[in-house]
């Protein structure tokens, strides 16, 4: 855990950077094939032009996912750049979110005990695809063989039984 006072972080225009091993991020690790990989991050605090505290989070890294077409591992490059405005509570966050015209800015609830590791992991999870796939699967021959294989109907045995009667 890495805890900051999010409001003071923004007010003081602070900046932090770091690296996290995949093994330190349990939820992201659950989506990956192995513990190999790491995530680099930069968090910058500031005040948005409309007066709210804002965070700029950049997350990059490399993880191994499973291709949903060929079921083999492949390397995926995480690249996320998120802009967030901080609100004091859920109600203020909802009001601010509806008043914003920019869909590229997220509104989150800040706190004096803000876990930035959880925020980094959330951004990394949002950056990976729901259904990861190679651009071009490396074992195309296997996929072609699977696609052209004769599929046996589950009703074929019943058909044989009926023809015997």
UniProtKB/TrEMBL annotation:
Pfam families: YceD (PF02620). InterPro entries: YceD, YceD_bac. GO terms for cellular component: cytosol. Keywords: Ribosome biogenesis. GO terms for biological process: ribosome biogenesis. Plays a role in synthesis, processing and/or stability of 23S rRNA. Belongs to the DUF177 domain family. This is Large ribosomal RNA subunit accumulation protein YceD.
């Amino acid at each position: 855990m890495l805890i900051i006072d999010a409001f003071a972080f923004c007010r003081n225009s602070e900046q932090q950077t770091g690296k996290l091993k995949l093994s330190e991020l349990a939820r992201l690790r659950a989506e990956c094939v192995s513990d190999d990989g790491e995530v680099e991050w930069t968090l910058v605090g500031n005040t948005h032009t409309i007066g709210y505290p804002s965070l700029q989070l950049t997350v990059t890294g490399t993880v191994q996912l499973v291709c949903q077409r060929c079921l083999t591992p492949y390397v995926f490059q995480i690249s996320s750049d998120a802009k967030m405005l901080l609100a004091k509570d859920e109600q203020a966050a909802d009001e601010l979110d509806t008043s914003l015209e920019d869909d590229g800015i997220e509104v989150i609830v800040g706190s004096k005990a803000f876990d930035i590791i959880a925020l980094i992991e959330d951004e990394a999870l949002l950056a990976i695809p729901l259904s990861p796939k190679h651009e071009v699967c490396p074992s195309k021959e296997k996929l072609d063989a699977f696609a052209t294989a004769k599929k046996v109907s589950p009703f074929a045995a019943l058909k044989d039984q009926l023809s015997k009667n």
